[in-house]
Amino acid sequence: MNAPALRPVDHVIAAARAFLGERITTNNAIREQHSHGEDSSTPVQPDAVAFVHTTEEVSKLLALCHRYEVPVTPWGAGTSLEGHVTPVRAGITLDLSKMDRILEVRPDDMDCLIEPGVERRALNDHLRDQGLFFPVDPGSHCTIGGMCATRASGTNAVRYGTIRENVLELEVVLADGRVIRTGGQTRKAANGYDLTRLFIGSEGTLGVMTKIRLRLHGIPEATSAAVCAFPDLASAVETVRTVIQSGIPVARIELLDADQMRASIRYSKLTGMAEAPTLFIEFHGSAAAVQEQAEAVQAIAADNGGADFAWATETEARNKLWTARHDAYWAGVSLIPGYRGITTDVCVPISKLVEAIVGAKAITEAAGQTTCIVGHAGDGNFHQVILYDPNDPHGLEKAWELDRKIVALGLSLGGTCSGEHGVGLGKREFLEQEHGVEALAVMRSIKQTLDPKGIMNPGKMFRN
Amino acid sequence: MNAPALRPVDHVIAAARAFLGERITTNNAIREQHSHGEDSSTPVQPDAVAFVHTTEEVSKLLALCHRYEVPVTPWGAGTSLEGHVTPVRAGITLDLSKMDRILEVRPDDMDCLIEPGVERRALNDHLRDQGLFFPVDPGSHCTIGGMCATRASGTNAVRYGTIRENVLELEVVLADGRVIRTGGQTRKAANGYDLTRLFIGSEGTLGVMTKIRLRLHGIPEATSAAVCAFPDLASAVETVRTVIQSGIPVARIELLDADQMRASIRYSKLTGMAEAPTLFIEFHGSAAAVQEQAEAVQAIAADNGGADFAWATETEARNKLWTARHDAYWAGVSLIPGYRGITTDVCVPISKLVEAIVGAKAITEAAGQTTCIVGHAGDGNFHQVILYDPNDPHGLEKAWELDRKIVALGLSLGGTCSGEHGVGLGKREFLEQEHGVEALAVMRSIKQTLDPKGIMNPGKMFRN
Q: A413 and A329, same structural domain?
């Protein structure tokens, strides 16, 4: 009897052993670990996981995968909420978490060059002594590479922009193993196509980022945070809209609805807070500027029936507040023991935010489902955690059905299906509706040009 | 005898008459007008100029040009400094200046939807009553479409970003006449490839923008401007560097060297100012914030030997100042009667700005040539107007030679050949050097995908 014929992926694994040794593995536990992110998509195990250390290794591995037409799924910290890291066509998962060196910090230029596996929090720990910080903060323990791939933003984006505005330069390994540099070290440039922005948000479908130069910001002289409760959801959202339109440079302005507050008070032990629609707000600047901004926002809140600000001026109190905000998803999911959650990511023009949020809540109530709303309201972006019973065979399906209705409302208001989580598997069906057939065809043609064999994170972003 | 065979462009002109009538013209004076921008490239007349009024007309015309493989050169206001609007392979020049409608202003969302032929100043005149403004200000009488095409920035970019950060949505006609929408109405999105940023800065080589949604900003409560002279160039540049690194949100911080001041004092009648390296600075914010920023900058300037601030608080005085700044190029060219000028556009990391500017000045002196330096110093971007005698057969060549040396110095310091003017004809030779062969190959492959027949602004950005 003949031995079974080797699959293409077996050739890749065998050849990659030469330069990765034990760092390319078919170990079951590791493949299982890499079979899904933090979303509800069906887990799929890759054939092997490669823990790469250098650009050269990524390049050699991609060249092999290109040659044998083996799918490649890049992996950072596995915190995707939209199935980005699920290797739906198996193949090789490229784990970049060990490429976590901070290669250079240039305080004079307020930038740094890092590898993609650097975690956001580790970077800020490293920078603190130099009076600098990296502001983009999606809350999770994600890697900067993953943030670039999904065009992440988070709580500080309202003031400092999303990751799109905070990346200067990339090193990218293309699908066939070629290595390019995009962008540069300057703050601006008018020197050819903006390849940096093309790769940011491309969700691993065009290449693998192996170096990233980030803009940094000075730690503000003064920071102050406050919490403000409102009689109803619309008043809280109106407050956000007026603050943004007044041009007050708030650093963060986050909305939690009454259900989310109920969940977060319990989960994060937020004693003394009300189970009412609430804004968490942070101010950055000089001491005088922070005070001036805070007074202006307090006045707008009061006009909308907001309670007096409860201040969190000390670092510890602020950390507790933002940890609670970051844990909102987990707090929401914990509302019903044993339940799981999916989360929406609708973003609308700010003039439509009241309508979108109040409407989403009404749709949810009509469906008789439990959700919490938490949002980067200053950007018009909000998340609705939709709980479902994993033991109900139709539970997840019903949750997705509600998600679709909420997205449809968002799109009808000029919004997008994804403000920051990305498309992945979960939002593919909305892309054509949002962009139209021709724009999607342009995206596909770019994908075809840069990845003609379709090996880079196949199945993501596009439906086929 | 047979009549001469019709050229492809004649077919296009004849067919376009059906929907453009007299608005497609072969009139000599109009072709001459459209043979060059404000640069020194050799004028080339297009075969015809089409004054389009609608997206549909652009689409039909491009479909024709695509069919007959006729070059198309988009035209806004003809203010390019790098040969973008010179139709080097003749064909049709697409004059978009009549597509100048402001289609929508949404004060609540702080955005507007416009046609590409809208002039920057006209837009701001229109917005003023609503308390809004569009900050990106390259100084010239350019159109917003031209600004998008060249990834323009200008004096306010240090605070408000370049046009790249201030465009939300585009309607684009592709080379074959297909019409797509890119981006959307929301402040951020993670919903597919960033086609908006791909077209911004593509210099008319990928398609024609026919609608543009811009972010707007609130007119600041208080605005104040000041002028500060320094004993030498390095002290002025050091001041800028420290201001930026301190995170003081100056709205503009512009550098004029002693030669530029000499030129501008004469050209713009800036009485009472010194022929010394000088900063023009503007502050935006609340009254208190403006005062606080001004005091901080004044202290930094004083540390570097700067003179006391001369204030321009009234609108009229400020307008005079910024008009002088905007006319700097013309003031520089007027230094030697009868001479013409080319201008460099180097941008470097701010830590290298002193070295770049002082070095550029030294190279110039060694070459025995006359130049003025004026710069968006806060972004690390500066322009050097190199004067040449148009009657000297080697004059322009010598000016380019000096330009090349200054760019080479900039690149050696981690900079780019173009901070904001674009590549066009003038900077093509530097692109490969900056991006490397492989990244340039990626740009070319995208060009090939979106414009397979190479009809869109051929000869620009790429050397062949």
A: yes
Residue after which a domain boundary falls, among A95, A122, A141: A95
Last residue of a domain, one of A162, A191, A218: A218
Question: What is the Cα–Cα distance from A173 to A164, expressed in whole angstroms?
Answer: 19
Which residues, at least 6 apart from B190, have a Cβ–Cβ distance to it below 8 Å?
Answer: A150, A151, A152, A153, A201, A345, A418, A419, A420, A421, A422, A423
By Cβ distance, the residue of B182, B292, B431 closest to A439 is B182
- Are B209 and B451 in contact by the 8 Å Cβ rule? The answer is no
User: B286 and B366 share a domain?
Assistant: no
Shared domain for A127 and A69, answered yes or no, is no
**Does residue A455 sit within a domain?**
no
Residue B275 near residue B261, CB atoms below 8 Å: yes
CATH of the domain at A338: 3.40.462.10
Domain count, chain B: 4
DSSP letters spanning A21-86: GGGEE--HHHHHHTS--SS-SPP---SEEEE--SHHHHHHHHHHHHHHT--EEEESSS--SSSTT-
Quote the crossing angle between the two packed helices B353-366 and B233-245, to the nearest 10°: 160
How far apart, in whole angstroms, are the C-alpha atoms of residue A309 and residue A294?
Answer: 9
A228 alpha-carbon distance from chain centroid: 26
For residue A170, list chain B residues with Cβ-Cβ distance below 8 A.
Answer: none
Digit-coded pLDDT (tens) for B107-142: 999 999 999 999 999 999 999 999 999 999 998 899
Chain B CA closest to residue A296: B286
> Using CA atoms in the order B256, B259, B263, B264, what is the torsion angle rounded to 10 degrees?
20
Q: Cβ(A440)–Cβ(A430) under 8 Å?
A: no
Does B18 map to a domain?
yes
pTM recorded for the entire structure: 0.97
Residues B326 and B336 in one domain: no
Q: How confident is the model at residue A1 (pLDDT cuts 50, 70, 90)?
A: low
pLDDT (0 to 100) of residue A115: 98
Question: Could B179 and A438 be called an inter-chain contact, meaning their C-beta atoms sit closer than 8 Å?
Answer: yes
- Is residue B112 located within the same domain as residue B211? yes
A200 and A228 part of one domain: no
Q: What are the structure tokens assigned to B349, written together? A: 């990391």
Q: What distance in Å separates residue A408's CA from the closest CA in chain B?
A: 15
Beta bridge partners of B279: B228, B255
Surface-to-core class of residue A359, CB atoms within 10 Å of its CB (0-12 exposed, 13-18 middle, 19+ buried): middle
| Mean pLDDT score across all residues of chain B | 95
Residue B125 lies in a domain: yes
Question: How many C-beta atoms surround the C-beta of residue B371 within 10 A?
Answer: 28
CATH code for position A80: 3.30.43.10
**Inter-chain CB proximity B200 and A193 less than 8 Å:** no
Residue B446 lies in a domain: no
Phi, psi of B195 (to 5 degrees): -65, -30
Residues 6+ apart with CB under 8 A from A365: none
What is the sign, positive or negative, of the torsion defined by CA atoms of A450, A455, A456, A460? positive
CA dihedral B129, B135, B140, B146 (to 10 degrees): -100
List CB contacts of B365: < 8 A, sequence separation 6 or more: none
**How many angstroms separate the CA atoms of A88 and A81, rounded?**
15
Domain range for B256: 222-330
pLDDT tens, residue by residue, B388-406: 999 999 999 999 999 999 9
Nearest to B109 among A157, A345, A349 (CB): A349
Which ipTM did the prediction report?
Answer: 0.96
Nearest to A351 among B109, B286, B449 (CB): B109
